[in-house]
Amino acid sequence: MLAQLPPTLRDLQLPLRLRLWNGHELDLGPAPSVTMVLKDPSLVAQFTHPSLDALGGAFVEGRLGLEGPISEVIRIGDILSQALLGEGEATPPKRTKHDKATDAAAISYHYDLSNEFYALWLDREMVYSCAYFETGTEDLEQAQQAKLRHLCRKLRLQPGERLLDVGCGWGGLARFAAREFGVQVYGITLSQAQLDLGRERVTAEGLDAQVQLELLDYRDLPQDGRFDKVVSVGMFEHVGHANLPLYCQHLYGAVRAGGLVLNHGITAKYTDGRPVGRGAGAFIGRYVFPHGELPHLANMTKHLSEVGLEVVDVESLRRHYARTLEFWSARLESKLAQAATLVPEQVLRIWRLYLAGCAYGFAQGWMNLHQILAVKPLSDGSHDLPWSRADLYRET
């Protein structure tokens, strides 16, 4: 069976050991740090075309065992795949029709998994989005607090203003904005589990008079411009390319003239939105984010502009998300035994690969993350934003 492996494998000199179902082993380089256990004989044939989707799927299904640090597993798996497949030509995926039922089911699949599971590896506020590292030396707790503050300062929040939080998660940003900036917050989510815990935390902090969280689709948002500011974090990845104009239109309709809209989300490397090559994007679509679609920054700014919002600031946080994911992955890896009591074994395998794989992917530039700040101009085309960004970084 080992003779059926591609000769190229022996030339790679990877710190990788292959162990067959019968105990036979082959080291592909000196001092192996990772062992792939081929439990299914059919996997030998797949090693002639080892896409990241195929390797990841085999691990999730229990046909492939992985021994060694998960970050090293991802790195070696990528080198292996690239050596035998090259970069390949990823084609734009077939677009999914995103209706309310489809989106609600996709959100429930991912976010209703287990509040206790997420709490194992997120920060204490359970902020499930890219942190912000002001110096690069912060721990996860510090960086997530810095991110929440950064968002609020970009929005120039003032006491008494009404903030709409689209895709509010467990309410970490909503509570922070109410507590630290004195605003009224209306947050929406499609996850019942997130809503329940979010409301519990709002009440526990005595913020019921300032924070209202609801189960609501963005397509049902009021369009009377009642909000002074709008923020959307980690939400538009679920909207779908076809619905981006509608999504932007609803953000525009929700905010008053002169108000600000801040969209924070993952963006594609390629302008046509094709996924990263060699199957990594396919794995995420199959196991992690069903119906998720990443638009390119150029497409998102286009749609915002076409509905009448003026894009005034864009910031890339790609490196910040790579580090955030490294923290998340390390925290999960340190609590695998506890995690195994909260989610099924197959689900835990998915999340181990997903967090470590995304940390690697963002570090490699396979995708990006952008904060896009836009303003709804006044009738004469003006707005009252500061002339520079200095206020964002001024000590308070």
From TrEMBL:
The active site is at residue 358. GO terms for biological process: lipid biosynthetic process; methylation. Keywords: Lipid metabolism, Methyltransferase, S-adenosyl-L-methionine, Transferase. GO terms for molecular function: methyltransferase activity. InterPro entries: CFA/CMAS, CfaB-like, CMAS, SAM-dependent_MTases_sf. The keyword Plastid does not apply. The keyword Nucleus does not apply. Belongs to the CFA/CMAS family. This is Methyltransferase domain-containing protein.
